[in-house]
Amino acid sequence: MLKLLQLGSLLLFSSWALAQNTFTPQQPRQKTMAKSIAKPLKIDGKLDESEWSEAPTVNLEFEVEPHQGQKAKQNTSVKLLYNKDFLYIAGICHDSLGKKLLRAPDFRRDFELRNHDSFGITIDGFNDKRNAMTMITNPYGTQRDLLGFDDRLYDVDWDGLWRVRTSRSDSGWVAEMAIPWQTLRYPKNQQTHSWGINFFRNRRSSNSTYSWSPYPRSFSVNRMEYAGVLDSLLAPPPSVTNIRAIPYMLYAYDNYKGTGYEKQGGSGTFKPGGEIKWAINPNTVLDLTFNTDFAQADADRQVNNVTRFSVFFPERRQFFLENASLFGIGLSPIEDLAGGAMRIQPFFSRRIGLDANARPVPIEVGARMVYRSEKRNFGAIAIRQNDGGSIGNTDFFVGRFSENIGSQNRIGALFTLKNTNDYNNLTGAVDGFFRLSNVLSLSSMAMFSKNSNESNTGLAAYNQLHYRNNQVVAWYTQSYVSKDYNPEMGFVSRNDVLSNTPGFYLTVRKPWLPKWVRSFEPGVFIEYYHKASTGHLQERQLNFNPIWVNLQSGGFAGIFYANYYQRLDESFAPLDIEIKPAEYNYNRYTLYLGSDQSKKISYFLNHERGGYYDGSLNYTSFSLRLAPSPHSSFNLGFENNDFKEVGILKESKSVQLYSIEGRLALNPRLQLIGFYQKNTQNNRDTFNVRFSWEYRPLSYIYLVFNQRGFTGTDFTKQQEQHLISKISYLKQF
């Protein structure tokens, strides 16, 4: 093992010296301008107004993928205009293959970028080379938008108010965007503005990415230090009354059947509510919510967990998703598996307004204020939740502050307070992010938690060193969680643990690879988990990834081998199979296969087999996607856990999870979406159907039906049904 780590270190620092392809930002920065016009434009994707013929034009000539630095194979041009109300952007995406091979598998807002032809713009209105506001569309006018900070923290579910229409022809496609000045954030008291800006295009049939201002392929277009400049812009002063009001009216019918529910039968209720967003100034935004409802939020999918780590269900509710990057700090295992299986977040918004079974708990009123500037950011959230019955109200408060240091570093602090009738829970954290070089960064955090009715104080901390260039991605993460750490407004995967997770993988692009292979990426991922209170090794994973290939089409294939050591100090019962305390060693083998997800028919396969504690477990997950047109798509999923001779009773059983999901769309604004899951564990099923009509920008009509059923402890069928109709209306002042 020591030799493997030494080899990884040698490869890391050798590649550091040879990282000539991860270039520094271009100097001087590329510049462009926008032309001022008097009249408003009709947004239809046709560009037939005379003003477009006179607009300044730039071309996307830099190829990011697959051959960084070469001249783009397809011509893409961008035009910029503005008037007193809007910034207009036109992306003209020429294509030698015409419109027949344009890829857009669905009309889902915030679509999966890698699966679509797309054109986008990213704006840094303060020109601080840190903040990014990104807006993207596909050839059918579907929208995706996000807020980014340092190309590391993202609000991917932020929905900005902007409009886009597209047109398609035999020579390619055109996107025409109109962004209101109220949506953008930029300094006041300036007559002339210079913004950081970049334009990019994904041509999916060749799996190519082009940009205007060059950036390395190991980064993203949201790394704003690589952006160009939109110069001499006479933007109007930010509006003093930049207020967005979204009132709504909702009718809900709830029906409960079964001995497991206190309520029985059906009942209906009407509820008014709404949200107000006030951009007090370009730096400060205040959000207010009352009688908060999340009928439009996507329902959670069922998961069969066979690990010793708690399952993390992501936030799906829009009010909490916005500005999540400021409050949602912590250790996440998502990026490059760098954190192993550990996740530590001092604040996790799902602890508000949802019970342990993901059922809504009424939120009476809430407020969030966020201030962002070149030097510092701070924010606060206050929520009152009505638990009902004898429990009474619960109050939640979150405070966050971060100070930017230099061009790419920051330090910060966060604290949460949960106040109930019986006790208070306080959690505090201090954190830092330091970009030590263009390719090397360090993230750190220290946390504590304290209950007013308990004497012990819980502690947690982590450090993560992360390196990325065009040839190597490497990391070393160490985390600690004490036995008493209990952030009741946060999330932690596991208590009483000290983890160490080093790892790396190579990105090899050489002429000797077959033409259908874009990159060969072997790697080593190591995870050690010790019990913090005793120092005993509790779990070890030695993961070797000798084969991983990314195909030119966007597909992939990989093989993993993992050696596991597990020490159980107390019994463990995955999917109701009880395993006795003991020490276990076993090996597992994994195969990953995935096809080009942008095609009309695509698939994904994950198959694992081998030992599992004192027996064996074969696991298969397979999904098939059918997308005959962007107007219709269907996903069929199957998952099976097949246990053999596992546990105290030497049980052999199979647990299946079936799923089907469909989306029918007349256009990106009128859609019918549904999914069904059947879990043979406890005979649990979930059914969700959602009709959504965006009848004007960010104003919706929803019809939602949810049903959940399972076999209770008394072996009788339990079932709950919810029918919801909701109409919301956005008014901008």
UniProtKB/TrEMBL annotation:
<keyword id="KW-0732">Signal</keyword>
<feature type="domain" description="DUF5916">
    <location>
        <begin position="245"/>
        <end position="330"/>
    </location>
</feature>
<feature type="domain" description="Carbohydrate-binding">
    <location>
        <begin position="43"/>
        <end position="202"/>
    </location>
</feature>
<dbReference type="InterPro" id="IPR010502">
    <property type="entry name" value="Carb-bd_dom_fam9"/>
</dbReference>
<feature type="signal peptide">
    <location>
        <begin position="1"/>
        <end position="19"/>
    </location>
</feature>
<dbReference type="InterPro" id="IPR045670">
    <property type="entry name" value="DUF5916"/>
</dbReference>
<protein>
    <submittedName>
        <fullName>DUF5916 domain-containing protein</fullName>
    </submittedName>
</protein>
<dbReference type="Pfam" id="PF19313">
    <property type="entry name" value="DUF5916"/>
</dbReference>
<dbReference type="Pfam" id="PF06452">
    <property type="entry name" value="CBM9_1"/>
</dbReference>
